[in-house]
Amino acid sequence: LASTLAELGRQTDAQALLESVAEQTDARRDDMAACLLTVAGGAAAPSVLLEQLELDGVEAASDRAERFLLACGVTGARTSELANASRALAGEGGPVLIEAHLSDGSPHVELHRNNVAPLLTRQARSSLGAGASR
Predict the structure, then answer these.
(1) What is the pLDDT of residues 42-83, one digit of tens each?
(2) Which has the closest alpha carbon to 69: 112, 106, 103?
(3) Helix locations, the chain, DSSP H
(4) From CA 50, how far away is CA 63, in angstroms rounded?
(5) Residues 6+ positions from 8 with CB-CB distance below 8 Å
(6) CB neighbours (10 Å) of residue 82?
(7) Angle at the Cα of 129 from the Cα atoms of 95 and 96, rounded to 5 degrees
(8) Is the pLDDT of residue 133 over 50?
(9) Full-prediction pTM beyond 0.85?
(10) SS3 for 14-45, per residue?
(11) CA 24 vs CA 54, 64, 123: distances in Å
(12) What's the CA gap between 83 and 81, in Å, rounded?
């Protein structure tokens, strides 16, 4: 795939990529799909503007939040302060989302309670219903 993209060049589209890949294969077991993205604006490499980490109560109790914050460029006592705050939020029920907004200078970090409930399968819903009636 990488060599086909290199041969087609930067101005190719998804259809041309799929056609080229199809020509190079003997058989396809499934449908093919492609999405190509182009970064506009000069030759500079794109930069990450936002990093997110979702932690449940168990994960928040580990050192995962600290490692994430350090990797995002948070330093000093702020790392421990934010990690402890994420543990507290996760301990209040439900996951916590840590957002690190990256730009020039130190990152701006926000903590959010995750407000997305997991979708349960039909089997899980029926199990919960059966347990509630007992």
Answers:
(1) 677 767 789 999 998 888 889 999 999 999 999 889 999 999
(2) 106
(3) 2-8, 14-24, 57-61, 64-71, 77-91, 122-133
(4) 21
(5) 16, 17, 20
(6) 21
(7) 5
(8) no
(9) no
(10) HHHHHHHHHHHCCCCCCCCCCCCCCCCCCCCC
(11) 40, 43, 43
(12) 6
Q: Is 54 helix (H, G, I), strand (E, B) or coil?
A: strand
23-57 CB burial, b ≥16 within 10 A, e <16:
eeeeeeeeeeeeeeeeeeeeeeeeeeeebebebee
Residue 60 to residue 113: CA distance in whole angstroms:
12
Look up residue 70 and give its amino acid.
L
Side chain identity at residue 9, one-letter code: G
Any residues with CB less than 8 A from the CB of 106 and at least 6 apart, and which?
73, 74, 75
- 126: pLDDT strictly greater than 70: no
CB 124 within 8 A of CB 93: no
In a 3-state reduction of DSSP, which class is residue 111? strand
Single-letter amino acid, residue 25: T
